[in-house]
Amino acid sequence: MSIIEREGGRSDMGDVDAVTRAVLTASRVLVSVSARSLAAAEDRATLPQFRLLVVLSVHGATNLSTLAELLGVNPSTAMRMIDRLTGAGFAGRHPNPDNRRETLIQLTEDGRRIVEEVTARRREEVAAIVARMDPAQGTALVDALTAFTEAAGEPAVPSAGHDAYPLGWTEPPAL
C-alpha cells in the first residue's frame, strides 16, 4: 500500500506529512546533485552568475532591467554580475537594434558551454542514481514525480538528445 491512498482517482492526503518528508529528503539529494554539477564550473562562475547565464540562455539577448527582474535582484546587482561575466568572456553587450539607447546582454559561446556542461553533468548524475533503482521503483518514481510536477504546473523535461532549454526546460521557466 502506498503512502497516499487513491480513491476514485483522487489522492487522500491523510498522510501529507509522510509525503512532504519524502519530497524534502529527495530534494536534499537533488540540491546536492545540483551543487556538484555546478562545482566543475565554480572556478569560472559563482552560483548567482551561473543563474544569470541560465536566464540568458533561456531568454536570449535581454536588457538590464528585464534581466534584473527575471533574477529578482536590483539592476545594480545585475550590472555587477554582468560586468564580471563580460570580463570573463561568458556574456557580451551590444546595442539593441530596435532601441539604440538600450544595451542587450547575451551569452557568448563560452557562457553557453558552461550552461551545457553543468546541465550534462546534472543529467548524468541523476541518470546514475536512477540506474541503481529497481525498475519497478523507477516506474513508480516516474508516476509520482510526474504527478508532483503536474500539480506544481511544471512542464516535463524532454528526453535526452532533444533540443531543450538549459536544465531541461521545454519553454522558458517562470523565474
Structure summarized in a few sentences:
The protein is 57% helix and 13% strand. With 175 residues, it is α+β, with helices and mostly antiparallel strands. The strands form 2 sheets. The protein has a 3-stranded antiparallel β-sheet with strand order 3-5-4. Strands 1-2 form a two-stranded antiparallel ribbon.
Structure description:
By secondary structure, the protein is an alpha+beta fold. Helices cover 57% and strands 13% of the residues. The strands form 2 sheets. A 3-stranded antiparallel β-sheet has the order 3-5-4. Strands 1-2 form a two-stranded antiparallel ribbon. Helix 1 crosses helix 5 (109-131), helix 2 (47-59) packs across helix 5 (109-131) and helix 3 crosses helix 4.
> What fraction strand?
5-15%
Taking all Cα atoms into account, the compactness measure Rg is 19 Å
* Shape type: elongated
- The helix/strand class is alpha+beta
Q: Quick one: how many beta strands?
A: 5
- Tell me roughly what share of residues is in helical segments: 55-70%
Sheet of most strands: 3 strands, antiparallel
Amino- and carboxy-terminal Cα gap: 37 Å
Oligomer description: single chain
Order of helices and strands: EEHHEHHEEHH
How many H/I helical runs? Answer: 6
User: Uncertain regions: pLDDT < 50 for 5+ in a row?
Assistant: 1-10
* Order of strands in the sheet with most strands: 3-5-4
Mean pLDDT: 84
Index terms:
single chain, about 180 residues, alpha+beta, three-stranded antiparallel sheet, two-stranded antiparallel ribbon, 5 strands
